[in-house]
Amino acid sequence: MAAPQNLVHVTSPAHFQESLAADLQRVSLINFWAPWAEPCKQMNEVVFELAKKYPNMLALQVEAEEQQDITEDFEVNSVPTFIILRGHTLLSRIEGADAQKLTSDIATHLSAPPSSSSVTSGAAITASGAPRERTQEELAAYMQALMKKDSVVLFMKGSPDAPQCGFSRTAVGILRKEGIEFGSFDILKDESVRQGLKAINNWPTFPQFIVNGEFVGGLDVIKEMLEAKDEDGSDESEFTKVFKQGIVA
User: What are the GO MF terms of this UniProt record (predicted)?
Assistant: First the structure.
């Protein structure tokens, strides 16, 4: 039986970003799976049926061990794991072969209108098993200070000279190629900041780009701005205004 057109087998991080960014208003189901895991085989059939039932939903099949950058970015430690997003907003996370909950959550989120409050800051900044060294107020103040420490700040995995994931490496390459001076922060060194930024910026992945203390977007957003700049060839492009003139809408 032919696979539904909205069921996409992810072949690379770039393919993943492009697929997700094609429509940021739709609900996306990301299925992290492995061919050796029997529960994954069963849940792959469930995902197949959900994709057929809901043609407006995007179903992304991510083979966890083959796409390690994506797996690491979503902090997936076991398969199957399911992430449900609307655009880049986290709606639900399900670990394990729970077909009933997956089916129920998909139906619920597809019937609900888009909402900026899909993720609460309390849930997002709770790191499983991680001790807290700061109060929430202290953490919020610390993150604001980090976001304002340079005109352009890249929150990434690793350092500019030693990125720890493909997305961060690409982000550094873009900024350097465009001659953008920037500061950086390694989110792998502070789990509370890593989780807190996901909440306050309403963005579940890294890298994250900050200009003049304001969140601009993730890698796919910046790549779209850069592509528009290359096509336009104008000094009035959005990329130029944001990263070289510091104008953030």
Answer: 2 iron, 2 sulfur cluster binding; disulfide oxidoreductase activity; metal ion binding
